[in-house]
């Protein structure tokens, strides 16, 4: 029963956070009970105040002082409970957010994020069909909450905000409310029984009718509200998608169409809203009518009891107040149970986003621990590596073998979609090969002769050390919404300023950076929106250089560069040779291929040609000549 185990784990996760706040929560719970006790005491005292037998001055004064004392105690207890429970809630929420974010940052595989980016999660129907009915139900419950098809990075941020809020509220305030409502019900019933058991029997006869009507109307309301929530989510996803791609919308002249589409979504939302309002109104109206009639009935019967001297006026007042409290308590208990279920669903949803629901290869393995001195590394190689994403059936890399030696420049080319960028990411250790392995060879000095050791890059080496060995400059380098200097330092936070300046210079960034307002302190905007594509690419290059890794992979480094920027690539190639770094350049440009010692040609995930450019261009039937016919005769 994997599903229920996952459920259990999510709850255990939440409860472990609760246990971290047990002292604060216990004080809050005690204060909650004290305030509830004070609440329960008031109606009796009020009843006594009303009755003629308390009409002597001395008794009235003592009653007043008792009520005052109870009021003060209740006030103090309410204050303590509010402070304690709310602070515990804040601590629990902060911890849940921290843990979820850490888990996303460290454990979730890149595949999952890629699916998020493209809003293209898969529901894995075959797996679902193999599950037991119970598992299916559990899974569907979660799927309905975490519809990965709709899940986007912004959606994850919303989970972090809203679900954490609900889950932490549940295990603090809701649980305390449950406690208070239960005590209201128990004490209320006890007091009512001691005042007039016959009246209680009458109330008990009415209660199931009121309760069932309330329950059914709430259930219907919940169903309508959940459709309303789904509609609201789709509307939010629509807005996010269109606003993120506003440029494309305008280029295609589809603004008016999108406004109309959004209007239709809103019309649907209004329909759901009206349905929900009607259901809510019906439920509230019915509850009001029923509870008022029930109260009137009890008061009528109570009036008769007063007439026949079986009860005093004060007793009737106390009884009515307790019955009111009992009604409030039962409604509060029902609400708290609903909130508790919702809170647990949020915890499970959060857990399923942070941690995979099924314990398989979706989790990043953290058992790797080898650290390697980058200075000793001699080469990195792929040995019969095959790879594909979890969502793919077709292999994107097939039996790829290649070596990147230090001081060597290898160029890789191939038609669009042949797998070059994927290969770069696999080589950098961001995606794990399905088959084959990536091997790092180090040569350690020794008294006799140097010792060569081979490490499995993916399974033996820690992620932080992988990054210190291989740096990749992606086709479209990502820039964070911060200064240039912070962006460049991102790959090596401890890099001193002079090293950053050197990297900026080596990547030919110095001229454009000096012209920006604030120079290297210039804030590049979201996704580097305040810079041109070429400037972003050059900063990406500078960032990779700062890390001082022995191997560098440049994915289409010159695609957005002007001639001056392209010179930067020549300079980087030269610098890599001088600094004895291994360089893999992915490119469609002949000029770039000419800089390399060796050229690799990839086709449909396989290496179909490799060797020196001078040899490859003589293979007239080869893939390279087919790709770049202008090579012949150069
Ligand atoms: N995150 C991803 N999820 C699923 N499939 C992907 C993902 N990234 C790439 N692919 C698929 O992998 C294949 C290889 O893509 P890749 O980006 O490596 O091609 P490329 O050779 O670098 O192409 P180009 O020359 O256009 O940059 C493509 O068919 C693409 O659809």
Secondary structure blueprint with pairings:
Elements: H1 2-19, H2 22-50, H3 57-106, H4 110-117, H5 125-130, H6 133-145, H7 153-195, H8 197-244, H9 246-251, H10 255-307, H11 313-354, E1 377-387, E2 397-405, E3 409-414, H12 420-427, E4 435-444, E5 451-456, H13 463-469, E6 470-473, H14 484-489, H15 497-506, H16 510-514, H17 533-546, E7 551-555, H18 563-578, E8 582-586, H19 590-593, E9 598-603, E10 606-611, H20 613-616, H21 623-627
Parallel strand pairs: 3-8, 3-9, 6-7, 7-8
Antiparallel strand pairs: 1-2, 1-4, 4-5, 9-10
Bound molecules: adenosine-5'-triphosphate (ATP).
**What is the percentage of strand-forming residues?**
5-15%
Quaternary organization: single chain
- The total of beta strands comes to 10
The whole-number mean of residue pLDDT values reads 82
Total number of helical segments?
21
Shape: elongated
pLDDT < 50 stretches:
119-145, 358-367
CATH 4th-level superfamily of the largest domain: ABC transporter type 1, transmembrane domain
Main β-sheet, spatial strand arrangement: 6-7-8-3-9-10
Structural class: alpha/beta
Total count of domains: 2
């Amino acid at each position: 029963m994997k599903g229920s185990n996952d459920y259990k784990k999510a709850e255990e996760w939440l409860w472990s956070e609760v246990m971290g706040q047990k002292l604060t929560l216990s004080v809050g719970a005690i204060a909650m009970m004290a305030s509830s006790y004070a609440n329960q005491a008031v109606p009796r005292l009020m009843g006594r105040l009303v009755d003629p037998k308390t009409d002597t001055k001395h008794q009235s004064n003592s009653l007043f002082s008792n009520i005052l004392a109870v009021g003060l105690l209740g006030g103090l207890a309410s204050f303590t409970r509010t402070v304690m429970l709310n602070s515990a809630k804040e601590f629990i929420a902060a911890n849940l957010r921290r843990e979820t974010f850490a888990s996303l940052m460290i454990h979730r595989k890149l595949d999952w994020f890629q699916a998020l980016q493209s809003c293209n999660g898969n529901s894995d129907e075959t797996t679902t069909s193999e599950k037991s009915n119970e598992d299916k139900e559990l899974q569907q419950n979660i799927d309905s909450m975490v519809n990965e098809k709709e899940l986007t990075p912004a959606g994850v941020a919303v989970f972090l905000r809203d679900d954490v809020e609900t889950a932490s509220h549940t295990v603090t305030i809701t649980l305390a409310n449950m406690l208070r409502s239960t005590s209201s019900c128990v004490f209320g019933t006890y007091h009512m029984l001691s005042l007039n058991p016959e009246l209680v029997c009458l109330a008990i006869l009415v209660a199931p009718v009121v309760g069932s009507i309330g329950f059914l109307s709430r259930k219907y309301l919940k169903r309508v509200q959940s459709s309303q929530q789904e509609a609201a989510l789709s509307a939010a996803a629509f807005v996010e998608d269109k606003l993120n791609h506003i440029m494309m919308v305008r280029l295609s002249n589809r603004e008016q169409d999108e406004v109309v589409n959004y209007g239709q979504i809103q019309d649907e939302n209004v329909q759901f809203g009206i349905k929900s309002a009607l259901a809510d109104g019906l439920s509230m109206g019915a509850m009001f009518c029923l509870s008022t009639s029930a109260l009137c009935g009890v008061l009528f019967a109570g009036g008769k009891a007063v007439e026949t001297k079986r009860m005093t006026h004060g007793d009737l007042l106390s009884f009515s107040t307790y019955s009111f409290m009992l009604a409030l308590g039962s409604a509060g208990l029902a609400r708290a149970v609903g909130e508790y279920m919702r809170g647990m669903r949020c915890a499970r949803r959060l857990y399923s986003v942070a941690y995979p629901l099924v314990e398989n290869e979706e989790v990043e393995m953290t058992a790797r621990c080898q650290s390697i001195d980058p200075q000793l590394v001699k080469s990195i190689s792929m040995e019969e590596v095959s790879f594909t994403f979890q969502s793919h059936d077709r292999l994107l890399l097939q039996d790829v073998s290649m070596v990147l030696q230090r001081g060597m420049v290898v160029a890789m080319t191939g038609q669009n979609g042949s797998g070059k960028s994927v290969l770069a990411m696999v080589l950098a250790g961001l995606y794990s090969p399905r088959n084959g392995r990536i091997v790092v060879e180090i040569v350690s000095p020794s008294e006799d002769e140097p010792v060569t050791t081979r490490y499995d890059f993916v399974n033996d080496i820690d992620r932080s050390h992988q990054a210190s060995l291989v740096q990749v400059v992606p086709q479209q380098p990502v820039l964070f919404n911060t200064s240039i200097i912070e962006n460049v330092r991102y790959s090596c936070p401890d890099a001193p300023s002079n090293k950053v300046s050197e990297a900026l210079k080596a990547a030919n960034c110095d001229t454009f950076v000096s012209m920006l307002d604030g120079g290297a302190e210039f804030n590049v905007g979201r996704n580097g929106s305040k810079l041109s594509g070429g400037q972003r690419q050059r900063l990406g290059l500078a960032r990779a250089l700062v890390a001082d890794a022995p191997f560098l992979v440049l994915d289409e480094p010159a695609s957005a560069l002007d001639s001056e920027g392209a010179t930067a690539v020549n300079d980087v190639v030269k610098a890599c040779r001088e600094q004895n770094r291994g360089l893999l350049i992915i490119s469609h440009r002949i000029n770039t291929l000419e800089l390399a010692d060796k050229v690799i040609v990839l086709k449909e995930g396989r290496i179909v040609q490799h060797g020196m450019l001078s040899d490859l261009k003589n293979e007239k039937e080869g893939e390279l000549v087919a790709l770049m016919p202008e090579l012949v005769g150069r």
